[in-house]
Amino acid sequence: QCRMDDMKPKNILAPNIMLFLFLLLAGCSPTAEQQLAVKPLFPELHGWDLRHVSISDADTTLDFKRVNCVWVIGDDNRPSDEPRVTALADKLVTLAPQGVLAIERDRYNDFKVGDDSFTRKVVLTFKDNSSYTLLIGTPAITKPVYVRLADKNQVYKVDEPLFMKISLDAASWLALEAG
């Protein structure tokens, strides 16, 4: 049997507030956020769709291009360490962020993903002539890697050790000579 005391607003409001808070916290858990964010940045593209990859820092640029289905380095088309370049190209295209960070534009430089302050700038050009610029930041050796598409505001956390040490020394990417 229902008593009038049970129907008072304070008796009804408290459980509803608790339910609301529980649902709010459950819906905003890091697990739910990460599940939404673990999609590749370029879900419709593949490494074999790439035609050109340019990687640079403030001083040096390294260019890989695909000639007759083979990756070569530089304007003189030196043969590359094909498996290594292919692995890098695949990782760049299938990049799946671990989460999106809420970072204001004025803090991009702190994460080394600013337009003029980055660890590596990677320009991916595909066979259909579409192009994407990734700004890769490694603010410290012990911190994770951050990535931002140059024309977007979102900064992504990436768990990919390879991106912390992309060498710009062309000789390190050349094919080993047989002999």
List the topology elements.
Layout lengths: L8 H19 L2 H8 L12 E7 L4 E7 L2 E4 L4 E2 L2 H12 L5 E3 L18 E7 L4 E7 L7 E5 L5 E4 L21
Structure description:
This protein is an alpha+beta fold. Helix content is 22%, strand content 26%. The chain is built from three helices and nine strands. It has helices spanning 9-27, 30-37, 82-93; strands at 50-56, 61-67, 70-73, 78-79, 99-101, 120-126, 131-137, 145-149, 155-158. The protein has a nine-stranded antiparallel sheet. A hairpin with a 7-residue loop joins β7 (131-137) and β8 (145-149). The radius of gyration is 24 Å and the shape is elongated. It starts with 8 loop residues before the first helix and ends in a 21-residue tail after the last strand. 22% of the residues are buried. Mean pLDDT is 82; it is low at 27-37.
Give a quick summary of the entry.
The protein has 179 residues and is of the alpha+beta class.
Strand content: 25-35%
SS class: alpha+beta
**What characteristic shape results from the CA principal axes?**
elongated
Q: How would a textbook summarize the main sheet?
A: 9 strands, antiparallel
Sequence stretches where pLDDT stays below 50 over 5 or more residues: 27-37
Strand order of the largest sheet: 4-3-2-1-6-7-8-9-5
Q: Compute the number of helices.
A: 3
> Rg from C-alpha positions?
24 Å
Order of helices and strands: HHEEEEHEEEEE
The CA-CA distance between the termini, in Å, is 93 Å
